[in-house]
Each structure stands twice: as structure tokens, then as C-alpha cells.
Amino acid sequence: MKKTTKVVLGSVMTMAMCASLIAGSTLALFSSEDSVNLAITSGKVEVEASVAEGSFKTYLATDEGSGYTYKENSGVNGNSGSLGLNGSTYSYTEGNLTLTNIAGGEGISFNLVITNKSTISVKYQVRVTATNDGEKDLASQLRADFQFTKGNESAPTYDVTKMTDEGGTPMSATSTFASNWSDPLAAPSSGITEGTTVATVPVGIWLPTTVASDYEEAKCTLKIAVLAYQGNAHVENPPTEPNTVPIYNATELCAFSLNEAAMNMNVALMDNIYLGGEPVAHRMAKRSAYVVADAVPFAGGTLAFKPIGSAETPFSGTFDGHGYTIYGLNATGTNAGLFGVTKNATIKDVKLANATVTAEENGKAGALVAEAKGTLTVTNVAVTDSTVKAAAEASGTTVGALVGSVSEGGTVTVTDVDVQMNESDDELGEGSNNNA
């Protein structure tokens, strides 16, 4: 029997927005479609994206005396070729753009063409992920830049002056590089051919001149996706605040959970996170490359989720879920939950669904936090269809639906929280101080 409990009768509302995702293929024609929630607008979101034929250009930095300037190499526009130095190459095939033996001072650009085939206006975001092929972390040395254009501007040219050692945005093998969301782009109107090009986005990627030659034998593959929502949907641009880590998918959440050095940083969820077994109703919204079962392939190995924060390095930042949902959390241990241990932390605007959290012998468990030290502020959080329990025959456990235990004289302040559990103890565990 489902046990339904409430901490505070507050406003926790999730508005479903239907997205059309361009996924799987990279730098090739791809499209998807779905119906839009009638509570927002009656219509269809459908977009296509491709790399413009013949738009590849390569660049080489030259010393102008007062600094390096990237200049275009002549005769390059095919899907593969030389980047300019020491056998460095680029290759686009089967949806992947691979850079090999790239040296400092080399770069590449191409035009990403985005076509609106919807019955309504759309706004879109371009996302880039990078994967290293081998032990060398070339991905974290690259820099990238998007340049948005308006309407049907044809064949824009990438502004190569943006290619500087400090220009663009650093990339990473552990995080997604995403553009800001575009302005709303109109749907094809009466008298205009279905599939009118609504935007062409020049993309630039380069390796700064300051990068050592250690990466010249490295290889990196780039994947680019375009996410589209209807034009009046609320969306969040990537965070600009210092010490804030954006998380777009399960792989990145897993990576953050393992990074003890980042436990004092702030986190911003930028999308729904699927750690496993998401409901069929949400299947259209998932990114297939982002879904985790028991573990996810990552950087040549296996990366599994572990609760964020430990007794030695508790999480002490702000976790802002931006209203997104984390599906399928499965945590078992002595500090089991989305967060293992927090200290003077804030968690807000996030929902957990279909979580299973289990405390082992002498352990603590809570869907949100296993153990809270110091202060913990929880605002606008929901937990649904989840189970928090002690392992069979385990003794000495402390279990709570939301927070397992509060220690070291700590306090938990709870506002606007909705907890609906399949099985658990009270919202706050044994000895907890509920200030809600």
C-alpha cells in the first residue's frame, strides 16, 4: 500500500513541456517530432538540423608580432582533410566529427543549419559533447563558440577573430557545452515552403596556441545536438554565476558525484536526469545517450553514481534543480540518498521520481539527504513513487523519507515540499529537527 506523507502543503507544480530532440546523429540530418501539451499551445514541434554542404573551413594561427591571428587555410570545405600541421586531420563520418593530432593554433568551423518544420514558433539550443579516444584529455583543452544568425540569412561566415587563446568557452570531457537559447523563430507561414530554414549557426572549435604539444597525438570526437521547445516555453540559459556547475545529463551528474574537490561548488540542473528506468510516458523526452542503467560508459571506463557528498567531504553548496526531475535514483549504503552528507547546504526546485534508497547496517538513508550536518535548507522539492528503507536484517539504521538523519546539532528548514512515498519512515529521520 502506498504511503502518502506531506511535510508542508505547498505549491510544487510541474508543467509538462514537450520537446523535439535531435539526438543520436551528429552533424548529419536528424529530426524528431511530438505533440505539444495543450495546456501550453496546440501545435507540433518538429525541427531538423544538418551541417551545410561545403561549409567546413580550417584555420592556422600565425604570429603577427603583437600576437597570434587565426587565418583560413585555402581549399578546404570537404567532410575530411588536413587541419594544417604535423599530420593533423579532421573527419566527419556517420554523425561524428573527429579531430586527430591537432596542434595548438589550429581550428575548424562549419555551419549548422536548423530548419523549423513546426506548426508553431520554436526556440532552440545547441549542445556539444566531447569524448576522448585514448588516455590524453584533449577535450578539456579545446575551446568552442557559437554565432547565432537571424531568420533566413544564407551562408554566414564564422567570425574568425573570436578564435583567440582566451576566446570562446573551454570544453570538457565531463560536461556539456551549451549555447544560450535562441529567440523564438517563426514557423513556416502560408505561402512559404514547408521546411524553411530558420537559422544557420556558425560553429568554431580550436586549440589555443598556449597548449603544449603533448596533445598532438590525441584524438577527440565531438557530438552536436539541437534541442527545441515551442517559442513561448520557459527555458533556462546556462549559468553565468561563478563556481556553478551546469549538469545536463546522467553522465555529468555521476561525474560530479565522484568529484570530491567540487563539493563546495553550486550545481544547476539544466535538464531532466535519467539514472535508470524512466516511465514510458517520458520516453519521448529522454536523450538516449544520457540514460544510465546501473552504470554509464565514461572516459574509457565505467562511471557509476554515488550519493553526493561524504562524511569526509560533505556537499556545502547550493543545488538548484530549476524545476527538473531526477528519475530512477538507486542508492544503497551507509549514507544513501541523492546526497550522502551535506553541511550548510541548500537544495531547491528539484523533483525525485521512482527512487529506491536503502540503508545498510548502521547506515542512514533519505530520498534527498542521508545525513545533514549544520544547516540544510530545502525549498520546493517533491519526491514521488519512491521507496526509502533499511536493508533486510540490517540493524542500527536511521531512515527518513526526505532526510535520514540530522547530526552535530544541525537544523533542517523545509518549505513547499511534497513527499509521496511507496515505503519509508517519517519525512525526517530519528533525532531530526524539523523547522518547517
Can you offer a commentary on this structure?
This protein is mostly beta strands. The protein has one helix and 29 strands. It has one helix at 250-258; strands at 3-6, 20-22, 30-35, 44-51, 57-63, 68-72, 80-82, 89-93, 96-100, 106-116, 122-132, 143-146, 169-170, 177-178, 197-206, 219-230, 244-247, 266-269, 273-274, 296-298, 301-303, 318-320, 325-327, 330-336, 339-353, 356-366, 369-390, 398-400, 403-423. The strands form four sheets. Strands 1, 17, 18, 19, 22, 23, 24, 25, 26, 27, 28 and 29 form a twelve-stranded mixed sheet that branches. Strands 3, 4, 5, 6, 10, 12, 13 and 15 form an eight-stranded antiparallel sheet that branches. It starts with a strand and ends in a 13-residue tail after the last strand.
Question: Main attributes?
Answer:
eight-stranded antiparallel β-sheet, elongated, twelve-stranded mixed β-sheet, mainly beta
Short description:
2% of the residues lie in helices and 46% in strands. The protein is an all-beta fold and 436 residues long. Strands 1, 17, 18, 19, 22, 23, 24, 25, 26, 27, 28 and 29 form a 12-stranded mixed sheet that branches.
How does the SSE layout of this entry go?
Blueprint: E1 3-6, E2 20-22, E3 30-35, E4 44-51, E5 57-63, E6 68-72, E7 80-82, E8 89-93, E9 96-100, E10 106-116, E11 122-132, E12 143-146, E13 169-170, E14 177-178, E15 197-206, E16 219-230, E17 244-247, H1 250-258, E18 266-269, E19 273-274, E20 296-298, E21 301-303, E22 318-320, E23 325-327, E24 330-336, E25 339-353, E26 356-366, E27 369-390, E28 398-400, E29 403-423
Parallel strand pairs: 17-18, 18-22, 19-23, 22-25, 23-25, 24-26, 25-27, 26-27, 26-28, 27-29
Antiparallel strand pairs: 1-29, 2-16, 3-4, 4-10, 5-6, 5-10, 7-8, 8-9, 9-16, 10-15, 11-14, 11-16, 12-13, 12-15, 20-21
